[in-house]
Write a structure and sequence with these properties.
Two copies of one chain form a homodimer.
Chain A: H1 3-8, H2 12-24, H3 37-44, H4 48-60, E1 64-67, E2 71-74, H5 77-82, H6 84-91, H7 110-118, E3 124-125, H8 138-151, H9 166-176, E4 188-192, H10 193-205, E5 211-216, H11 220-229, E6 232-239, E7 243-244, H12 246-255, E8 259-264, H13 278-290, E9 294-298, E10 323-328, E11 339-343, H14 348-359, H15 364-375, H16 379-404, E12 410-412, E13 419-423, H17 430-439, E14 442-443, E15 445-446, E16 459-463, H18 470-486
Parallel strand pairs in A: 3-14, 5-6, 5-8, 8-9, 9-10
Antiparallel strand pairs in A: 1-2, 4-11, 6-7, 10-11, 12-13, 13-16, 15-16
């Protein structure tokens, strides 16, 4: 078996195909219990998420079904095939549309198209911001959720109101003190993830036709968001290891008009993974004040320092209410919950109004579960473990890349989070590399997405937030070889 | 005991105050189990939601705590009082800020301020779109949710992607056939409630400076949303019992420039509760086509016909992809879930991109629970019951209003949903009436919020979506008397 085939065969689609054949051939009987997600993952030496995606796919196909209390079973698929449900299921079939690589770098589509990669038969999807599910306290959160549902089912019937669940606000206020941020409940709004937080923050300070300054390289989602809002993005370069260049920023502020805000990730920037020093954070804030601007501080990776030390947020020194602080539980605690928060300083009233007319309210259920988890006091120990895991993976990944990638490849190592930012030899176009990588089941984010200017065409971003093992080692080997071939 | 006091004393704050005193006086011991929400509601003859709000309030105050499996207990409040948690809790104290009645009618604030009413000590909050929690299948949904969490806790760790859970899309596609709407999975995007659906729909078809046509009277949330997007709202009058006047619409379309779309609720309009005839629906669609516009069809109340008959959506006849159909489970099935959907026709790609850069993704957990509930086939029987309850309440509410309100009060009865739209004698300013009503624990929505023009100052909207009983009868009596006094 060659290596490419071995990587391919473990994708969820390959797994689903094998199980599909087994079921149709009668090797699993109708009504027979299938292995649990965990059992199956350990049996096949696959990641939990691959098995989850496989079961989800077969459920849509009508081949398996989840049953009360006890797991996944082979569905009565012959009967289903006959009835209308079958025709319907075929309408929602997960036939992945082809990735439109040409659109991938368009400002309007870069995020949409990158997401469309996820639907491809991938073995290693290293392109998005998802760490391994088993690195999160899923069991503890699920237990809390079950208990709350048992105790208060009626809450499902209550139309929610307000700017966030008071209990979650209380827990967050206490937690944010570890970032040096001191808030009251009315300073805080709970959002549908940090994406919504960023979106309402931008709308609160800028209108179509205005400009904001962003870091370069920068999270591509922000570029698509700005494009959709009609706001111009002015890219100011980062100094690797340090964050946004304050000299370049000062120059830009003196020469650009119509700038309303700076958007920055002072802690563990996406994709560079670097943090600004305290001194530079304070300098940045002074620049904001001097130029009468707002600072939108995206701190979603702030809790994921590889050292056991939580860096301060710039919001900690904000005396004029100019810093709009955005955070989320999606990276550090519960990816599926989609709960974020925003502390908008002097812009809070406008932000609250915009949120209300964007999505009314954030679901309270996930908020209640998070609140109880945070109150239980186990967040610090969860984060300690997560940070250790991330820190342990970096040297392994870096070594593998140096082993397999073309000579001259530079690895920008992060101080927090799970990104590796790779600079490949100059003639390697990582968008072309991506096409080939996807065809063998690996995805990453090509560098050109991190700027609107065509920069970073020989860079790429890798998500290494998962247990290091044979799968990742083989993946790096394969990816390195593809890059060698292009080189 | 006079009537005002009797209405007052049942608000959740009054209940919480009483319980607070009982606990501090030692009538409930630390560690003692408190009655369940249901027991307490039945004991005190209060609504379930009042008790829920009371317990939530006391939990924030550190006086009670929820415990694993078995209910609500008296917390060790003396100890808590001493520690830091207490200071923090006080920061998030639910001291309701005063309602800024002057802001209530400002386009920028009408929704925000109306929501702020909810924080007041209300006995009868008839101002928002929430029906009684006990009218929803909370137990069934909670059971499904618990089972799913038990079976697949790992899903909490999976970062979601895509335009919605395939299983929910399958179930919705089948369900929407009852509205005459025939969709494929790729035509559909799951949103954070219908508010997000409306917001991305508007952004897909219009920019700041453009205009859209809305019905008059119209849902105030739409007016605040348009204001926040910088889109001009052109109000076209409705014919009570029929919906938007097509003659007036035709005239407006011939005389207004910059119009990009019409936003309408052809089924059970908010606040009028009326449905358009099939003939008029088709005429409206033809006008849209002739003027090269989009139609944003808000169908959130479509399932709540008081007859056991689901009217068609205009989307059913849309051959050119001009109708952007918006729906939600918040009114008909699970208010707390905040799951909506949008089928955007020719605008779908733009809508998907806007959603991605507004909130990335809608949480999958609630989607999975809804999907399983819908697949179980019990949605029709739930809706049958809900419709019967709504239909049974209308004549009781109408009779009570005629009994207690000033002579000349007209009640516009709905054909679906839970709104009563009241026209009071011309000299009665319902905004002034609201101030007085809130001071005795009753809230409604004053008519002036349903237009940007100052119209409908002597109208008001009441939500009667709750069991009719002494509480509501007394409330109508009190409200009628206040209106008499103003008259």
């Amino acid at each position: 078996m060659n290596m490419r085939a071995s990587v391919m065969q473990h994708s969820y689609r390959q797994l689903a195909q094998a199980l599909d054949s087994d079921i149709r051939a009668g090797r699993y009987q109708v009504g027979e219990r299938l292995p649990s997600v965990r059992e199956f993952a350990s049996l096949k030496q696959l990641s939990v998420s691959t098995v989850i995606r496989c079961y989800r796919y077969l459920e849509t196909e009508g081949l398996v079904e989840a049953r009360s209390k006890s797991g996944m079973y082979v569905a009565d698929w012959k009967v289903r095939a006959a009835d209308q449900a079958r025709t319907l299921a075929s309408k929602t079939k997960l036939t992945p549309p082809a990735v439109e690589y040409d659109k991938l770098v368009s400002l309007q589509h870069r995020m949409t198209e990158l997401y469309s990669l996820t639907a491809q038969p991938l073995q290693l999807g290293l392109h998005l911001a998802s760490a391994a599910p088993e690195w999160y306290p899923c069991d503890a959160l699920a237990k809390i959720a079950q208990r709350q549902l048992r105790q208060d089912p009626m809450l499902i019937g209550v139309y929610p109101g307000g700017t966030g669940l008071p209990a979650l606000k209380t827990a967050l206020i206490q937690w944010l003190k570890t970032s040096g941020v001191d808030l009251e409940a009315s300073d805080l709004l709970i959002t549908n993830g940090s994406t919504e937080a960023l979106s309402v923050a931008l709308r609160a300070v800028a209108q179509a036709g205005d400009a904001v300054i962003v870091e370069s390289p920068v999270y591509f989602g922000l570029l698509q968001m700005l494009e959709n809002l009609g706001i111009k993005a002015i890219e100011v370069p980062c100094v690797p290891g340090q964050g946004i260049s304050l000299e370049a920023l000062e120059y830009a502020l003196e020469h650009q008009t119509g700038v309303r805000a700076v958007v920055a990730m002072p802690n563990f920037q996406n994709p560079l993974g670097c943090s600004m020093s305290e001194k530079n954070k304070k300098r940045l804030l002074r620049l904001i004040e001097q130029h009468d601007l707002a600072l939108i501080e995206d701190d979603v990776f702030g809790d994921l320092s590889h050292l056991q030390h939580r860096p301060q947020a710039i919001k900690a020194w904000d005396r004029q209410g100019r810093v709009i602080y955005c955070g989320s539980c999606s990276k550090s605690l519960a990816p599926a919950f989609r709960v974020g928060w925003i502390a908008g300083g002097r812009y809070q009233a406008r932000i609250n109004s915009l949120k209300l007319s964007t999505s009314l309210i954030t679901p309270l259920f996930e908020q209640a579960v998070l609140a109880e988890f945070m109150q239980s006091g186990t967040l610090p120990s969860h984060l300690r473990k997560l940070r250790e895991r991330l820190a342990a993976t970096i040297p392994l990944a870096t070594a593998a890349i140096h082993r397999y990638f073309p000579a001259g490849t530079q690895v920008i190592s992060p101080a927090g989070g799970w990104w590796l930012w790779l600079e490949l030899p100059e003639h390697i176009d990582t968008l072309a590399l991506l096409r080939q990588a996807v065809s063998v089941g690996i995805a990453f984010t090509p560098g050109s997405l991190f700027s609107g200017s065509g920069k970073y065409a020989n860079y790429l971003r890798l998500n290494i937030g998962r247990p290091w093992g044979r799968e990742m080692e083989q993946g790096m080997k394969l990816l390195g070889r593809l890059a060698q071939d292009v080189a």
